[in-house]
Predict the structure.
Amino acid sequence: MEKELQHYDASDIQVLEGLEAVRKRPGMYIGTTDVKGLHHLVWEIVDNSIDEALAGFCKNIEIIINKDNSITVKDDGRGIPTEIHPKTGISTVETVYTVLHAGGKFGGGGYKVSGGLHGVGASVVNALSFWVNVNVYKNGKIYEARFEHGGKTVKKLTEVGTCEANRTGTIVSFKPDPDIFDTEIYDYETLKVRTRELAFLNKGLKLTLRDDRDNIDTTGDSFCYEGGISEYVKYLNRSKQPIHNEIIHLEGEEDGVIFEVAMQYNSGYTDSIYSFVNNINTHDGGTHEEGVRRALTRIINSYAKKTNILKEKDESLTGDDVKEGLTMIISCKHPNPQFEGQTKGRLGNSEVRKLADNVFSKGFERFLLENPDAARIIVEKAMTASRARVAAKKARELTRRKSDLDVVNFGGKLEDCKEKDPSICEIFIVEGDSAGGSAVKGRDSMTQAILPLRGKILNVEKARIDKALSNEEIRTIITAFGTGIGSEFDLSKLRYNKIIIMTDADVDGSHIRVLLLTLFYRFFRPIVEAGHVYAAQPPLFCIKHGKTIKYVLNEEERDNYIASLNENTKYEILRMKGLGEMDAEELNETTMDINTRVLRKITVDDAIAADAAFSKLMGEEVEPRRQFIEENATYSDLDI
Ligand code: 1YM
C-alpha cells in the first residue's frame, strides 16, 4: 500500500477510490481496529499540524479528549486552504477530507515531509469516524465543514463567523465510529507519551494535551523543548550517571533531507539508541542508523589511535564496544522516505547512509578534538568494554568446555542429583562448606543437588561480565545451571526446576542472598521471571518440650507456639545458630524436605522497577545498601 500511495502524482488527484474502501479494509490503512488503531487516528490528524509546523507556519498544537471520547486537535498554522480545488470542483478542505488520494502534493511550495499515510490521513480518519467537524480560521473568517457516517459531507465548507484578522489555524474534531473500532475509550497516558515524544522530536513546537472527560478542571500537560532531541537524551539519562557533561548534538541537511543526532554516554553497560524518520520510530534501524554506527566506530578508533590511548598491539574497537552505555537519538526528516521490512520499520533510502556518516563523523570528530577530557573518558570506556568482550569470550569458552564434560563433579564442588529430568530436580546453593556438607548428607540425592559457596560471591552490579566470569563461584553456577549467559542464554537448557538459595538467617546470609539475586537478575533474568528461584527459610528457633521438637521461622511464630502450649509445660527455646551447626537430619527436616520445608518464591513482577532497586542496592552508593541489609537482617522479607 505504501508504494501505491507514494507513486501518485498531482494529476491523479481525483476520486480514485471512495472512502468506502477504507471502511471495508481499515487494517490496510491504520493497521488495526483495536485500541492501537483508535489512538492512531489522533496522530493522523496531528501529523497534518506537525507538517504545518515543519513548514514553519505553526507553533502550537493542542489535543483534547472531549467528554464523549471524541478528539479535538487545534493548531495555529495557516489553516487548510478554503478555495475551490480546480481538480475536484469542491473546497480544498472538503477535498482533503473526502478524497482518498488528496494530500501530499497539494498546495505546493514549502517544506513538506510526511510519515504514515503520506497525506491521506485526514480522509482515512474521516472514513472511520462517526462524525468529523473542521473549522478553518483565515482572512478574518471562520469556515466550517461537517462529515458524518464514514465521511459523507453533511455541511459543505461554509463561512460561519468572523475572527481577528490575523488569526489563522485549523481545528478538527472527530468521533471514531464504534462500528469500526473494538473500543471507544481513549487512554490519556498513551496519548501523553507520544505527545511528549513529538515535542522532543520537533524542537520549539509546543504540544498540549488535555482531558475534559472528568468534571475536575484539568490543565493537562504541555511539552515544548527548545533543545529538541538533546533534551530527549537528557530525559532518557535522567536516572543514569552520565560520564561526560555535554550532550553531543549534530545536525546537517542535504537535498531537503534533515539529519540530526544527539548523544551522551552513561556509566551503564547497555545502550539506548532510538531512531526516527519523519517522527516515526524506525524500530529496525536503516540507513540513517547504519551511517551513524559506522562513523561512530571509525571516529573513536582513529581518535584513540591518534592520541595513542589505543596502542599498536591493542585490538580495534568494535561497534559493540563503542555503544556501551550510549544513549542516542537519531532523527531524520525526509521528503520521500522509503520504509522497508515486514513492519515498515526500516529506512531504505541509500543516500541517507552517506549523509548520516558525513554529518556525524565531521561533528563528532570536532567534538572529540574540542573536548579532550570527555573524549578520553569516552575512549577509555570503549576500551574497557573491548577488554571485557575479549575476556568474556575466553571465559565463556572455558565454561562451555566445562559444561561439555561430565558435570557431575566439575570443580569438585557441585554434588549433582542422579535424576536427569530437570522438571523434578532442584539445586540448593548453600552458604559455607560445613552447611554444604550437612546438606549433601541430608538431601534426597535422587532429585536434590547441592552447590556450596565459599564466602561471598562477587557483586556483579559493580563488575563487568569479564570480571564476573573470572570468579570461580560464578563460573560454577553458570555451568551448573546449564543455560549459558548473555547472547547464548537458553532457558530450555536449565537443569533444575527450582533454584533454592539457602543462607543463614543473619546479616551475612542476607548479604549473600542479595548478591546471588543480583547475579541471577543480571545474568539469568529469564530464570527469575519464569519463577524458578526460591529462598529457603531455615528456622530461627527450636522449641523443645518433652520429646517434641518444634522449629519456627521467627519471633512471632515462637510466641504463638508458646502461647498455645499447656500452661504447665516446662519448655526450652534454642536460638538456631546457623545452617552449619545443624546436622544432616535437622537440616533435612527444617529446610530441605519437600514435605516440611517452607520456601519463598522470588518474583520479578516489574523488571524495570527491579533493575532500579538493584542499582540502588548494589551500586556505588554504600548507604542505601547498608540500610537495606540491616532492614532485611531478620530474614523476614526480600521484595525486589
Ligand atoms: C488539526 C489539523 O490539518 N492543519 C493544516 C493542514 C494543512 C495546512 C495547514 C496547509 C498546508 C499547505 C498550505 C500546504 C493542509 N493543507 C492541505 C492541502 N490541522 C491541519 N494546516 N496551506 C495550508 O501543504 O501547502 C492538506 S493538510 F493539501 F490542502 F494543502
Remarks:
- The mean pLDDT is 85.
- The CA atoms of residues 69 and 599 lie 49 Å apart.
- DSSP finds 21 helices and 23 strands in the chain.
- The pocket of 1YM is lined by residues 45, 48-49, 52, 73, 75, 77-81, 92, 96, 103, 106-110, 112, 170, 172 (CB under 6 Å).
